[in-house]
């Protein structure tokens, strides 16, 4: 299969440089700032570009900065704030030992911003790759072409929740589609990669999907924390873990939104509102 050619702008060379498909191109302190910005990270704790599963991905292990990806228009490189405002994808700050859910690059010219730094990219992809990039993601994430294992495997080796915990959650979601859709609807801003994402109010999730009661979403969160960490108290880490291990995907969010829309049209949501509003005391 033909490999799409990815180019990155080199400030030191003042020209486009080809990214080799058999190794990771790290968007590290040296490349972005010529080692001037000490707040930027070095590899492998930064963002990067890699060729996996016949497509180019932008991923991030940066624990300090979000990574913004916006289309490049015009001949001048805008300031980072403009890139942030025009971003089509935003990779969240990566939790320790994990990486943010990667973004599959589409053909065209792009701007990637980390902190105050902006770097242009250009992907010249053959038609065959464009077809492949449209295929849905699989639950099993492929290894990088240079043989490096995923961060989740490293986390498991270090005693942190990794593949075993992810497999437990995946199995649960396969058996309980409503729980999976509820968490996708709850974390929809995280799945979409929006800046400063916030969870949807729990009551909105309960009404949209006609869940059993006000505490249903909270119960799902507690159950999942038990699967992953064997204890509660990791609510802030839950979204990162689910997204880092592809346990929640855009396809799950689409399914949840379709069910919510069907419930609204059929009157199920209105009945849920009435049920929750007028339920007897002690029920």
What can you tell me about this protein's structure?
The chain has 283 residues and is α+β, with helices and mostly antiparallel strands. It contains 12 helices and 10 strands. The chain has helices spanning 29-33, 80-86, 127-133, 151-157, 163-175, 177-186, 188-191, 202-209, 216-229, 235-244, 250-266, 268-277; strands at residues 5-10, 15-18, 25-27, 47-52, 55-60, 67-71, 89-91, 100-104, 108-114, 117-124. It has a 6-stranded antiparallel sheet with strand order 2-1-10-9-6-7. Strands 3-4-5-8 form a 4-stranded antiparallel sheet. A hairpin with a 2-residue loop joins strand 9 (108-114) and strand 10. Helix 6 packs across helix 8 (202-209).
Low-confidence blocks of residues? 129-159
Q: How helix-rich are the residues, as a percent range?
A: 25-40%
Distance between the termini: 60 Å
**Gyration radius, to the nearest Å?**
21 Å
Identify the strand order in the major beta sheet. 2-1-10-9-6-7
Average pLDDT reading: 81
Shape label: elongated
Most strands sheet: 6 strands, antiparallel
What structural category do the secondary elements indicate?
alpha+beta
How many separate helices?
A: 12
Q: How many extended strands?
A: 10
Return the string of H and E elements: EEEHEEEHEEEEHHHHHHHHHH
Strand content: 15-25%
């Amino acid at each position: 299969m033909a490999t799409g050619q990815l180019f990155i702008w080199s400030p030191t060379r003042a020209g486009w440089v080809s990214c080799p498909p058999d190794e990771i191109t790290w968007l590290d302190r040296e490349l972005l700032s010529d080692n001037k910005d000490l707040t930027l990270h070095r590899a492998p704790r930064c963002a990067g570009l890699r060729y996996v599963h016949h497509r180019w991905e932008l991923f991030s292990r940066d624990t300090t900065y979000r990574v913004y990806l916006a289309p490049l228009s015009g001949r001048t490189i805008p300031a980072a704030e403009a890139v942030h405002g025009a971003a089509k994808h935003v990779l969240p700050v990566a939790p320790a030992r994990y990486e943010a859910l990667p973004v599959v690059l589409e053909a065209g010219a792009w701007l990637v911003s980390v902190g105050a730094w902006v770097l242009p990219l250009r992907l010249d992809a053959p038609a065959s790759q464009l077809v492949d990039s449209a295929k849905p993601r699989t639950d099993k994430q492929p290894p990088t072409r240079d043989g490096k294992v995923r961060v989740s495997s490293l986390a498991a080796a270090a005693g942190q929740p990794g593949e075993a915990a992810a497999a437990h959650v995946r199995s649960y979601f396969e058996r309980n589609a409503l729980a999976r859709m509820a968490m996708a609807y709850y974390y929809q801003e995280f799945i979409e990669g929006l800046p400063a994402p916030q969870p949807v109010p729990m009551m909105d999730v309960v009404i949209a999907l006609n869940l059993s009661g006000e505490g249903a979403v909270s119960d799902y969160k507690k159950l999942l924390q038990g699967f992953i960490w064997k204890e509660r108290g990791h609510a802030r880490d839950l979204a990162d873990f689910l997204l880092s291990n592809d346990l929640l995907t855009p396809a799950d969010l689409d399914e949840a939104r379709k069910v919510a829309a069907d419930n609204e049209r059929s009157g199920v949501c209105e009945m849920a509102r009435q049920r929750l509003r007028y339920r007897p005391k002690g029920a």
